[in-house]
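User: Teach me something about this protein's shape.
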Amino acid sequence: MSAIDPRDPAPSRLKYRMERMWMTPVYRSLIRTGIPVVIVLVLLGNYLQKPEVQIRLAESVNQARAMIEERPEFALKLMRIQGASSVVAEQIREAVPLAFPLSSLRLDLAVLKERMEQVDAVKKASLFVRAGILDVEIEERIPKLVWRVNGQLELVDETGARAGVIAKRAVRSDLPLIVGEGGAQHAAEALKLIASLGPLTPRFRGLQRIGERRWDVVLDRHQRILLPTENPVAALERVIALQNARDLLERDVLVVDMRDGQRPVIRLTENAMTELRRLRQIADEEDKKI
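Assistant: First, the predicted structure itself:
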């Protein structure tokens, strides 16, 4: 009778656990793929950290990029500006000086758009690359007023945004004049006042912003209408009603003060005041005789 083998044929606990782990897909993938990939990445990282390798790699990338950028299908031959006057078009070309031909892949259209819209007269710019041409579509600001401030004449649109600069008033004598600090910020209100002038339009010389709070209407013959801070249009319409009914501004009136918004206060010219004093003196003397 043979002797009984004292060794237990069953696997050990550690071997059993290892066999169980090997049966799981994640563990097998980690051993077969994950660890080799990590080793390769570590070796590749160490290799790429060498300065000479980085230089060669950068040169290769730049060469490949240059080859792509210089392909004829990406070449731009000129910039075409539409919707802008010749003066504004020239200002745009000065703001974005481009040397053609060049590759469209080297252009940052967002940056070019931003630079073009920094030109005073440009309200909006749209850029497109079409068949070897950089097409620029411009929406110009339309000047509505001439604003005199700090010794400079600026053109502003209906929102008060600057639309250009002029050297002399005569250059845009067709536009109304506003004067004073804060005038452009209230361009919309100024345009409403100018539109309400009615029969006073031929005599209108400009609007002056006073204390950055309110407007004075300046007429010829050195006459002024002082408007209130609130509801200036309504106050101006009352003065125009008085003008239509009684020819108020055809008299020796220097100032019509409407700052309280309701009742006008009249300031006469110096000659009219002198005449008024003379008439009062005569009336007083007649009263004494009686």
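Now, about its shape. The domain at 179-274 is CATH 3.40.50.11690 (Rossmann fold). The mean pLDDT is 85. If you'd like, I can walk through any region in more detail.
User: That's plenty for now, thanks!
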